[in-house]
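Weekly sync, protein design subgroup
Attendees: M.S., D.O., the rotation student, P.L. (late)

Item 1: inverse folding check
M.S. brought a backbone from last month's batch and wanted to see whether the design step gives back something sensible before we order anything. D.O. pointed out we never logged the input encoding, so this time it goes straight into the notes. Structure tokens as presented (220 positions):
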């Protein structure tokens, strides 16, 4: 499974990239707003992310009609060869995905919650599909089960082009583990969760005792 970082924060992206684990980035309007992003800076911000990470960088269209989505998608795609246009899983989004993918522009269909939505997204030409996990958990449904249905359904078919599942709305190390066990292609992980993945009390305890024993060796 590949790791993307789910953030618009350049410092977080730089740090994750320096660990050698960041194969791509996903952003959305909320993540951009959270870092105090301004509309006028948005395109430059996307370009700066593309300079940090040499991999797919999802930037979201906010139009709701197919022509508007296509227009925004073409603009976003022209910013850098690695930009992936993020499009909501709605019928106008499917139509825009068809048009953009026929132009060779990679699309990530986002806000995907069910396997049938994902099957339609793949048929329309989406290169990436992002089933959301944590938002199901927020409403007391099992997000991992929904993700697993999507991964299994997509694996049954050849769509005539590469389709990768991005496990999204990831909230915990367990979400990452379950996504990897079921063979999701990618997990897009908030930076805080990425940090948590590397933490274990036995690692800390082991390191502490190795260093204490090494101190004894030095003083012997
Ligand atoms: C996916 O690409 C989205 O940016 C993201 O994972 C949303 O997750 P949230 O439910 O934590 O907002």
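Designed sequence read out in the meeting:
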């Amino acid at each position: 499974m590949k790791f993307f970082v789910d953030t618009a924060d350049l410092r977080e992206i730089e740090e994750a990239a320096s660990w050698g684990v960041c194969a791509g980035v996903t952003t959305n309007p909320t993540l951009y707003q959270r870092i105090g992003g301004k509309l006028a800076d948005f395109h430059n911000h996307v370009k700066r992310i593309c300079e940090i990470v040499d991999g797919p960088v999802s930037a979201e269209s906010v139009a709701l009609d197919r022509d508007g989505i296509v227009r925004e998608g073409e603009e976003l795609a022209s910013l850098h060869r690695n930009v992936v246009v993020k499009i909501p899983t709605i019928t106008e989004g499917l139509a825009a995905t068809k048009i953009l993918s026929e132009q060779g522009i990679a699309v990530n269909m986002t806000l995907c919650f069910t396997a049938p939505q994902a099957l339609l997204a793949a048929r329309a030409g989406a290169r990436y599909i992002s089933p959301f996990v944590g938002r199901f958990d927020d409403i007391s449904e099992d997000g991992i089960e929904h993700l697993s249905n999507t991964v299994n359904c997509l694996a049954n078919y050849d769509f005539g082009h590469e389709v990768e599942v991005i496990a999204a709305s990831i909230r915990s190390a367990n979400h990452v583990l379950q996504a990897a066990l079921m063979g999701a292609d990618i997990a897009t992980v908030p930076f805080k969760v990425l940090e948590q993945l590397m933490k274990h009390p036995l690692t800390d305890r082991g390191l502490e005792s190795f260093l204490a024993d090494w101190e004894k060796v030095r003083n012997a």
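Discussion: Strands lie at 2-6, 24-26, 57-60, 83-88, 107-112, 128-131, 164-167, 186-189. The first strand starts at residue 2 and ends at 6.
Action: P.L. to compare against the previous round before Friday.
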